[in-house]
Structure prediction request, 576 residues.
Amino acid sequence: MIRLKTEKTNIKKFLFELIHLMSQTKVRFLMCFTTLLLLAIWCGAYVTVNADQQLLLRKGILNLQNLTKSFKAHTEQTIYTSDQVLRIIKYQREKRSDLKYKELKDYFDRGVIDTRFINQIGIIDPLGDYVFSNLTNPPRVNLADREHFKIHKEPYPYGVFVSKSLIGRASKKLSIQLTRRIEDAQGNFAGVTVVSFNPNYLTDFYKSIDLGEKGVVALVGLDHTARVIQIGNQVVNTQEGGVVDFPSEVKDNMEGTFTSNRLFDGVNRVYAFERISNQPLVTIVGQPVDLLSEDSNWHKIIFYSIALLITLITLGFLITNVEYLNRLAGLNLDLIKSNHEVKQANKHKSEFLSSISHELRTPLNGIIGYAEYIHYTSKEPMIQFPAQIIDESSRHLLKLVNMLLDLTQVESGRMVLQNEIFNMTQVIEDVIQTHRSRTFSKNLKLTFENDEHCPDLVCMDELNLRRILNNLLDNAIKFSKQDGEITLSIHYLKDIDSIYFSIKDNGHGIPEDMHAHVFEKFWQNEEFITRVHGGSGMGLALTQKLVTLMGGEIKFNSSQNVGSTFYFTIPIKKLD
Prediction:
């Protein structure tokens, strides 16, 4: 009997040690697993933040490059327009014998030459004397010492010379001088034609695009001398010839980007530059580095907050399970005595772990989703899928915001019609082509019927017409049945000088008891097909208001399971 008790005691001791060892092993495994998981989470968050910063920086640089192209185009157009005037004046000087310039004076008196943005236009003779000006009673001045005169004594390789900002001696205004060389019949230097315009003509265009209070736009010569500099909304005085310390690659390349804190005021900026065609000039646009990465700071807070939240949940899970496993080791004797209780405890433990695992799956899927998103947005292994999510969600949100803003503008009376002449048939075909790819999944037939009496050119608001047609076609495609047909037709109503538009589909249709609500804002019937296909409830409301704003009227016919026809008329303006 004593031997039997001893054997039972040894068995209990062995089982206790075995259970204790197993529980300790589980604790170590759980702690190792949790450590690796947290390390993966924070590494993923770090990689995500860095990738997001790089992506936003690339978008900011692309925006700067696009702005630089716009400023370059405006500058080139200004130089081109001024050069046309220079060529006219040059021709009159070289080919006409009349030195009283009666014909030139007639040009200015009759407004043949546009001088709205020009301070003055004139001719300088070989000795530097100002012999002709479009100004009334111009002062007699000598400009032989001016750079824009001296540079043309030898043929200037760029044709037109663009001077630094200075006070014109004839106009007495802050000016940039554009000059061309005049030659006699033997090709010798015979003077200079000059067009003087206010630098504000350039800076006014720069101010139309907000770059922030530390954004910079400048027109600079390859000699590092600035013609125009604007920082924020402040125009910098460049009369003394402001020197811009740009890097050597600006001279060596037609376009590009660089980062510097040495150009203007010590602010570290990202710059984009573009060379002006056929001129030793370059347009430079810059924004502070911290401004370009401002959004990424918010993203960093979001990503790290998510990582911190998951960390806290995981640590809570670890502490709970470690305590549970430690208690389980202390109950080994009771476990031996009551196998049933052990099974029940294991069952509860399994249910608890299953519940916690289920609760963790959602945040973990979020982390996996972001990792995939990073992977699919770049050539790097971890950048693609989330950008697609962000892009699609952003586009959808932008569409809703734009629609809401348009609706608000119409209702407040702040939307102004921009009537212009355009080819209506081409516009309709463009709209149809935009939606044609969406018809393939349903095998829809989308046709356009054009009344032969409709004029090719019409005068109305093209952008709003596109919005109306896009909204109606979008609804027609969305609610059409498989293998359905959509027809867009137009007719010319000669008696009221209007165009009649019709969009017909044979889709689900609208029940008659809902007809009164179709053009109401934000209305969607909970039991109708719109709840399946989704939508904001603003499209038809906006469409009706746009048609009304354009002087037309919209109506519809619809029956459930038969289809709908939306039709409207818009008057056309008389062509001048």
User: Anything to note?
Assistant: Residues 346-362, 368-372, 394-398, 525-534 have pLDDT under 50 and may be disordered. The chain is about 50% helix and 20% strand. The CA atoms of residues 250 and 273 lie 7 Å apart. The longest helix spans residues 2-95.
